[in-house]
Amino acid sequence: MDRIELARVIKAARARIAPEDVGLPAGTRRRVAGLRREEVAQLAGLSVEYVVRLEQGRGPQPSDQVLTALTRALRLERDECEQVFRLAGSSPPLPGRIEMSIRPSMLRLLERLRDLPALVLSAKGDVLAQNSMACALLGDFMRWPAEERNIVWQRFLGSGVTHVSSPEEVETTAQQYVGWLRTARSRYPDDPDLRSLIENLLNRSEQFWSMWEEGRSTTSRSMRKTIEHPDLGTLSLDCDTLLLPDTEQTMIVFSAAPNSPGEAALDTLRATVSV
Q: What would the pLDDT profile of 198-245 be if each residue is shown by its tens digit?
């Protein structure tokens, strides 16, 4: 592990990012360009003290999970991500592994969707990023432990987002999630995190095990979702899925028809986010 060079790369990357690029207020009392350490820590889900130690060339070797969160927060391109992994003494994500980093251009697109809730998922359902509207609608996934930031895990093992709807919609969603993981396994048979997720679900959820045994595969599809919001009540929204082919990530966008109750609810939600 080259702590000194790793610290230099992290500090340089932090200095290149303007606060407004990541949806943070610029303020008027910034002494240096770029993000503050506490802002990087917030974006990566790390403690400020941990980021300080990294930038000072101190502390233990970062885990792959920490490196992934850090490179995502710093919006590093693939080559830059590989450099950070190597400097930290870790192997960069290999071909054949599920991509967990989001291109900076996709993060910019996500942030510019200010009127609609939107989030980006990995090929196995990890929530990689969400905009402010999605946080207000579904809750802040980044506040959960890393292994629980997965919509399939939440569907079968967690409390997660409450979907209230007909039994048919509940069943359809569960089958879609199981089929989604089957498709991911066929495409990424050597991904250890995917194997661990599937084994965990098989061992702990009888419903998942039963559906897994049926052997169905599927990909993400657009559909209607019924969501129970703590303040706005029951919302029926269109849920469209946009595929990013090169990474097999998906962007999920929630919307509602004009003049519908769902549109009125999203207007109310938008006003709370803007406050």
A: 999 999 999 999 999 987 777 666 778 888 888 888 888 999 998 887
CB 71 within 8 A of CB 84: yes
DSSP letter assigned to residue 129: E
Q: Are 176 and 221 in contact (CB under 8 A)?
A: yes
Q: Which residues contact 228 (CB under 8 A, 6 or more apart)?
A: 162, 163, 164, 234, 235
Rounded-to-integer distance, Cα 78 and Cα 71, Å: 9
Instruction: Express each pLDDT in 52-64 by its tens digit.
Output: 999 898 878 888 8
DSSP per position, 136-176: HHH--GGGS-GGG-BHHHHHHHS--S-B---HHHHHHHHHH
Can you give the pTM of this predicted structure?
0.68
Phi, psi of 118 (to 5 degrees): -150, 145
d(CA 254, CA 266): 9
Q: In angstroms, how far apart are the furthest CA atoms of the chain? A: 59
Token couple for 153: 């895990």
Cβ-contact 74, 14 below 8 angstroms: yes
